[in-house]
Each structure stands twice: as structure tokens, then as C-alpha cells.
Amino acid sequence: MGCVGSSEKGVDGHQKKIKKPKVWKHPESLTRAQLKQMRDEFWDTAPHYGGQKEIWDALRAAAEAEISLAQLIVDSAGVIVTSEDLSTCYDERGAKYDLPKYVLSEPTNLKDD
């Protein structure tokens, strides 16, 4: 039986911890400005994919924060992390939130503006 403070726990009985995303490469070299534009477009349209705006806001804050702060943000928002890099998460109602690589980390082929 759950309670207000219960959360999704992993096999070992602990909340899944967030880790840095794996290194990735974009098909074309991007500038920081292009990457920022892609991220802004995603976050502006993300609530239209479903789920709660508050959860999308928490995920954005977590994606832009250091790992330790990101963990606090998702825990406080009640986000259920199913992939350690935050690419797939759920809220307490079961809505799924998919985050693309480019909002979670920078590609290896990022070029200067």
C-alpha cells in the first residue's frame, strides 16, 4: 500500500539515480546558437505532447541543472525516472515524458559560433 510520500523504486529498493547522458554526435556540426534554438523549440512545444506543464517545467529545470540538483528537482516533482539520463520519465499519473539527447547534453561535434 502506498502513501503520499511513496515513489517508484528500483530493484535494490532505492530511487533510480540520475547520471550524465552518454556521449553523442549530431549528424551535422551545430553551433551553440543552433543547439540553443533546437532546445528552445523543444521546450516551447513539449507540453503539447501530453503530460502536465508542471512536470515539463521540472524536467527542463533538471535538464539544465547539475546532476545533484537535477536529482532533487525530479524527486520533489514526483517524476519517476526510468532511464538514468532522464530521456524517459513518467509522472505519478503514468504520463510518459521523452526527452531528446540535445536537451540533455551537448554533442561532441559542437562548433564555435
Automatic annotation (TrEMBL):
Domain DC-UbP/UBTD2 N-terminal: 15-112
Region of interest (Disordered), residue spans: 1-24
Entry superkingdom: Eukaryota
Pfam families cross-referenced by the UniProt entry: UBD (PF16455)
Transmembrane segments: none
Protein name per Swiss-Prot or TrEMBL: DC-UbP/UBTD2 N-terminal domain-containing protein
